[in-house]
Amino acid sequence: MRATLERAHLLKSLTHVYRVVERRNTIPILSNVLIRTDGSALNLKATDLDIEVTEQVPAMVEQTGGTTVPAHMLHDIVRKLPEGAQISLETNSDGTSMTLSAGRSRFSLQILPEADFPDITAGTFTHSFTLKASELKLLIDRTQFAISTEETRYYLNGIYVHTVDGAEGTMLRAVATDGHRLAQAELPAPDGSNGIPGVIVPRKTVSEILRLIEDPEEAVKIELSDAKIRFTFENVVLTSKLIDGTFPDYVRVIPQNNDKLLHVDRQEFSSAVDRVSTVSSERGRAVKLSLQPGKLILSVNNPDSGSATEELVVEYDAEPLDIGFNSRYLLDIAAQLETETAEFKLADPGSPTLVHDISENRTLYVLMPMRV
């Protein structure tokens, strides 16, 4: 194998693929990136056996072939080379190393055979549809923060994607929950997505997708089966295994009859929560909301460090109510809202609360209360 290409092209592609490679691997080949020359391009592939990312980068190919080299080391070398450098990659005749040359720099890297590199893309994909990158980003941005990190409840360690029939027609919906809060976002179902199986896209896959979105107007092709999902960008393809589990019946926890309405300026509310939570305990992070007609008092009482209160003018005309929430969860949800006014639909101190933008019905958030 022998090829020459621009540093900028190689660095951009390596940045896309090397991130899926874990720094510590018990299987040596999984620490490597597969490099294969083909026609007038260099093909890169990396995997952790759950996610696989491939990308094609233009190159001047003098000799076709393939090999694998340490992914993080190769990325670090290319990153440290001067801008504008021309990089030459060549495997030696006995197949034990690859030489990387750029200007006066020369590196000899240990390689492992291409034949040992795993392939997780086998199998057929039963459904296919296309989304704008901006739409895909919206579904992820609005729900990702609520993904559970509790490994024992592995079926909550991702975003549940499925279609639902509603008043506005069939919608493509994304849902995430950690048992304390729930986030839901949806948009009109694109052609080809009707009848897709409900799938749980893993947390790591979701993070990688966001990093691959560079042009919001780009069309992203999405293919899926019961076990895998594939995202095809312009030159990058990400294939991932899905979480093999059953997502809970989340609709049951979305309150339908909460009749106490609170309208509050989103930015004022977020800033006030942030201020009073400064004295909250790291463990509890509880903030108390005391509601009275036209007024909201936020308070925190921490026996170890002190107390804080702040009063806001709000729109609220129901009976007085005291309810507590985790301040970090309140701030996370407030950060997702886009309009100036947030709407809270409350019932009582022990029941879930519904939160969303006052003029936006494509997203909603459910927050479980805390004892305060």
UniProtKB/TrEMBL annotation:
GO terms for biological process: DNA strand elongation involved in DNA replication. InterPro entries: DNA_clamp_sf, DNA_polIII_beta, DNA_polIII_beta_C, DNA_polIII_beta_cen, DNA_polIII_beta_N. Its main location: cytoplasm. The keyword Chloroplast does not apply. It is found in: Cytoplasm. Residues 1-120 form the DNA polymerase III beta sliding clamp N-terminal domain. It holds the Pfam family DNA_pol3_beta_3. GO terms for cellular component: cytoplasm; DNA polymerase III complex. One of its GO terms (molecular function) is DNA binding. CDD domains: beta_clamp. Residues 252-371 form the DNA polymerase III beta sliding clamp C-terminal domain. Gene3D superfamilies: 3.70.10.10, DNA Polymerase III, subunit A, domain 2 (3.10.150.10). Residues 131-249 form the DNA polymerase III beta sliding clamp central domain. The keyword Repressor does not apply. Belongs to the beta sliding clamp family. Forms a ring-shaped head-to-tail homodimer around DNA. This is Beta sliding clamp. It comes from Amorphus orientalis.
